[in-house]
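Appendix C reproduces, verbatim, an entry submitted by the partner laboratory led by Prof. M.T., so that reviewers can inspect both the input and the predicted structure.
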Amino acid sequence: MIEEQGRVVAVEAGAVWVETLRKSTCSSCAVKAGCGQGLLDQLGAGGRRGYVRALTDLRVEVGDAVVIGVREDLLVRGSLLVYLVPLLGLFAAGVLAEQLGLSEPLVIFSALLGLFVACLAVRWRSRHTAGDPALQPVVLRVLLAGAAVAS
């Protein structure tokens, strides 16, 4: 389970909205000088706050510090879906257009069309499964008042 601390900003029936602070590990990285993420962190873009809807059956109130979690396998499957499927669409459409003997501009256009269609498929799949409780983050525990997340 991948865990993250946050603060409850809104409560719904069976769920809460949690504000988390996105952290960067650039201060401990050896290649921070040549990294785009390190540059964004220096410019102040790395400290943005994120809002996550997490399911819970615990009794929580606005302002409570909580730990939310997501299963590792969901993260891996989601990463494969978001990154690998569009690339496969791009390559498959390009190779198919090449095998059909189309000219180079049409092969490029076909590859981009394959990428676009694959991205639409990923978007459709994510919207279709967005309401599935098995795929949602959950509140694992409520932290003590002294362990509250700094605002």
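Helices lie at 36-42, 72-99, 104-129. Additional entries are available on request from the coordinating office.
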